[in-house]
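Attaching the record inline, Q. Sequence:
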Amino acid sequence: MAPKLPTGNFATLPVGAKIFLLFAALAVISSGYYLGIHMGLEEETRGAQAKHDALQRDLTDAHQRQQEYLKLREELAGREALDKQNMRILPETAEIPAFLDDLNRLAELSGLRVTTVGPRPELAEQFFVRVPVALVLEGRYHQLSKFFYNISRLERAINMENIALTTPRVEGEDVILHVSVLATTFRRPSAGSGAPKVVKK
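Structure, as predicted:
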């Protein structure tokens, strides 16, 4: 039970009453600070921490989306490069002029003479179309080997089929070979034409 305070001014109060009043004033001030200021600051701090956590989650999500985007962009670039390479290997059109230019160019580089060039009708397979061209070449054995080797290094898929060596002749110290070969390249089936008809062999 609190002691009864005597009436009068503060200076005339006994020391015990002054100490009691001092502690009572401090308690009131502390309560007012806690209720009026500290609780408000604590609430603001909790709100700021919640906003910070939300922003941190958004930043983490943004980083993850950025990584996924970069990964998808890299995969797309790889797919585009692969598609371009596949288009060179197996184009959508026969491109006969370019095909014949490649054959003639490589024959000349190899030192061969092309005596006959005869495009043949296309043959549809299940997943591609064969584009054959009959060739007759003349040259020495190592020139033929060089020609076939250079053909194998082209990006476009080309088969050298039905190779036949006929009527060799001697010119000085060289043996000139007469070679007939079926150079076959390939193309993709035309878009919208459905599956090509399979040619029975």
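Residues 14-89 form one domain. The mean pLDDT is 80.

More tomorrow.
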